[in-house]
Amino acid sequence: MKNSFTAAAAQFTPVSGDPEANLRKMEKLCDMAAEAGASLIVLPELALTGYYLKADALRALAVPQDGSWSAPLRKKAKEHHLLIAVGYPELAPAADAPAASAAPGSITPGRPAPSMYNSCLLIGSDGEIIGNARKRYLWGREKRLFLKGASFDVFETELGELSVLLCYDMEYPEPSRIAALKGADLILCPAAWSRKAAYRWRVETAANALFNLVYVIGANFLDENCCGDARIVGPDGTVIAEGFTPEAGTAAENRTSAENQTAVQEDCIVTALISPEELERCRAEIPYWQDLDPEILAEASHAAEGVR
Fold first, then answer.
1. Among residues 152, 187, 140, which one has the least CA distance to residue 1?
2. Contact 157, 124 (CB under 8 A)
3. H/E/C letters for each residue in the chain?
4. Backbone angles phi and psi of 64, in degrees to 5
5. Nearest residue to 5 via CA among 37, 33, 52
6. Is the dihedral of CA 179, 77, 44, 36 positive or negative?
């Protein structure tokens, strides 16, 4: 990361099963991010469709990575010079055989084999696609719906090196560590994080930032199932921006709402400054990387050999 920039994390209430309505919401959120001076916006997991759909409905809405569905967001990216990360159900290429890449327990007799990935598309500020990330850790029924992603990639962007972990990927320490070891300074987490697990959302976004001395930007839905609380966490684990959560019952001062800056439960963004100087300060004061022991990493890898 060479220069400071403002980042935005979004939270919104999706219109379940209506991509056009959700795209309109996301376009407004992109406008809000641009008005706030942001160079990056992170949108939730499966933001295109919503998360809580029946299996057949979600399969019917799956779209290819390079499909026309992203055109409105690509236009916004170019218009506002804005990098956009957006979750969507990716229609798997025909060559991606479920037997080779499905999660354990995902192929059930009498049910359709997984034909989608739970993915995040990265759109550059020129409107072109930078890359695509696919969720690896699949939660519950996701194992029956989605193929498992293959790697935790780091993407080179004009803003710096970043990686994408989708929701449940953030609940394990290894994905963030892998991304950081590959050079990521910033981890984006599009999520559909439940109200029941709101405490884990707060703990795990902060812990992954601190243990790896990286920024974490988490976007989430706010509805009857999901806890909202879009957030940006600094590399020392300090929450530097957070949105509304039903548990807290209030809005953060640095949240920008769709209607005004005092309402609390509508679609909104939170913003914060992402600073290379702050990264350097934290990494100088907290010597995790200097003291990291490769032998311990090797021991962990050896211990994992017996895990299915």
1. 187
2. yes
3. CCCCEEEEEEEECCCCCCHHHHHHHHHHHHHHHHHCCEEEEECCCCCCCCCCCCHHHHHHHCECCCCHHHHHHHHHHHHHCCEEEEEEEEECCCCCCHHHHECCCCCCCCCCCCCEEEEEEEECCCCCEEEEEECCCCCCCHHHHEECCCCCCEEEECCEEEEECCHHHHHCHHHHHHHHHCCCCEEEEECCCECCCHHHHHHHHHHHHHHHCCEEEEEEEECCCEECCCEEECCCCCEEEECCCCCCCCCCCCEEECCCCCCCCCCEEEEEEECHHHHHHHHHHCCHHHHCCHHHHHHHHHHHHHCC
4. -70, 155
5. 37
6. positive
Q: Which two tokens stand for residue 118?
A: 């739970």
Q: Specify the pLDDT at position 104.
A: 58
Nearest to 9 by CA among 216, 156, 238: 216
In this predicted structure, what is the pLDDT of residue 106? 56
- Residue 118 main-chain phi, psi, to 5 deg: -90, 105
- pLDDT (tens digit, 9 = 90+) per residue, 148-198? 999 999 999 999 999 999 999 999 999 999 999 999 999 999 999 999 999
Pick the closest to residue 269 from 33, 27, 6 (CA basis): 33
Task: Sketch the domain layout of the chain as residue ranges.
Answer: 5-306
Question: Which tens digits make up the pLDDT trace of 241-269?
Answer: 999 877 654 444 444 444 333 334 589 99
The class level of CATH for 5-306 reads: alpha beta
